[in-house]
Structure formats: C-alpha cells, structure tokens
Amino acid sequence: VLRLLEAQLQDQRREHEEELEALKNQVDELQEEMERQHQATLQTLQLSPELQVEFGLQQEITRLTNENLDLKELLEKLEKNEKKLKKQLKIYMKRVQDFEASQAPVPAERRWHERSMQTAVQRKEKDFQGMLEYHKEDEPLLIRNLIT
C-alpha cells in the first residue's frame, strides 16, 4: 500500500510540475506580449496626432481581420457539422421508414387504441391555440392594428 501511495504521489508531483511549467511559459509569453504592446504604445505617443489615429486604425483593421478569419473558420466548421448531421438524419429517416415498412400488420384492437390516442393528442393541441381568440374574418383588421 505504501508503494502504491508513493507512486501516486510521484505521479501527482510530476503532473503538478508539468502544469506549473506550462503556466510559467504562458506567463512569460503574456509578459512578452505586454512588453511589445507597451513599446508600441510608447512609439504611438511620440507620433503626431494624425499618425496616432492612422496607427490606431491599422491596429483595429488588423484585429478585425483576425477576428473575421476566426469567424470564417468557425463558420466552415459549423457548415461541415451541419452537413454531417443532415446525412445522419437522412440515414435515420431511411432506417425508420424501413422499420415501419417491415412491421407486421397491426391487430385491429391495437389500431383502434392508437387512433384513440391520436385523437386525444389532437384535442390537446386544439386546447392550446394561443393567447388571443378572434374570428377568421377579423384577421386583416387585427394584423393592421398590430402593425400600427
């Protein structure tokens, strides 16, 4: 048991050291980035106001371009996922149709029970038509009043 605990402790210590090293590297990178931004800020402060505006616009254009590229990548990924899901849906729809076609004829009692359940569901749906009750012939007037 002691050896097992020692091995677990060493594993945890090794993982902790690796995580600590990764965090130190991340802090160093952030410090370097901060230093670069600080130097750029000092340089822009030494420029004339017109050049400061131009430099700020260039930075904003660069930032927006990078953001746009990230969004395009995300869009492409989502489109691929959508295509994949549509293919899966077609496959599942085909399986359902095949399954329904392979079903044996349902006994008359069961068909009657399924029909009665369907009518009950339809009645429930009719109970929840919305918050506003109106006559069909009043619909254009109602729409006009809602718009205005």
Describe the protein.
Among the domains are: 1-46; 49-103. Helices cover 86% and strands 0% of the residues. It is built from 4 helices and no strands. The protein has helices at residues 2-46, 49-102, 108-127, 139-147. The radius of gyration is 33 Å and the shape is flat. The termini are far apart. Residues 120-125 have low confidence and may be disordered.
What labels describe this entry?
148 residues, mainly alpha, 86% helix
Per-chain topology:
Layout: H1 2-46, H2 49-102, H3 108-127, H4 139-147
Largest sheet: none
The overall average pLDDT, rounded, is 84
State the end-to-end distance. Answer: 79 Å
Tell me which oligomeric state these chains represent: single chain
Query: How big a fraction of the residues is strand?
Result: under 5%
Helix content: over 70%
Number of helices: 4
What is the overall silhouette?
Answer: flat
Number of E-state strands: 0
SSE sequence, one letter per element: HHHH
Radius of gyration: 33 Å
Could you list the spans in which at least 5 consecutive residues all have pLDDT below 50?
120-125
Structural class: mainly alpha
Protein name: MYO5B protein
Keywords: Coiled coil
